[in-house]
Specification:
This protein has 219 residues and is an alpha/beta fold. It has seven helices and ten strands. Helix 3 packs across helix 4. The radius of gyration is 17 Å and the shape is globular.
Length: 219
Amino acid sequence: MPSLSAAPALALHDVSKRYGRRWALARLTYALPAGRSLLLTGHNGSGKTTLLRLVATALGPTAGKVEVLGHDAVQERDTVRREVGLLSHASFLYEDLTAQQNLVVLARLLGHPSPGDVADTLLTRVGLGRRSDNAVRGFSAGMRKRLAIARLLLKAPRIALLDEPFGELDPAGIHDMEGIIAELKASGVTVVLATHLVEQGLTLCEERLHLQDGRAVAA
């Protein structure tokens, strides 16, 4: 039996997900080798976000099996959650706290020895150093996206799931996000990137999975 270290970063075994009578994913089988990054494409409603949420264990499959780094995403959910970071449409930020306080709270939950220092470093990295003491409630959508990526970086996941990471960002923000994705890859993090900006995605990822009505099809 192969060791977990040799397991694919992501393995989907005949995975299906149903909402009522609608199948968001239908018998999807795919394996992403460790050390490779995946561009996930498809029109709205094709199943991209559902797939990312299954990998992040926010959802469970109706049928089939999702494995992350050799772990069953249902049976070993807590283990998978420690290894995966999700940047989604929902920012999961505390509105009444400042940008720094949001990161300090997470750093303390993760047991980081220097919560304030790591928060300041990450806020500078994502271009929010001058807004660290401002409450999130007054942030623009682009600023919230920057803070959300800082939260993901703080978690230091082995797999980063990025759902439309370029959305709501200005050109400078898009450039910064491309740099962050490149840095994640260089540090050995597996990136799964769902985006409508296909050309940009192709420059950042080695693999591509195109979905149509929840099924893998040729792009």
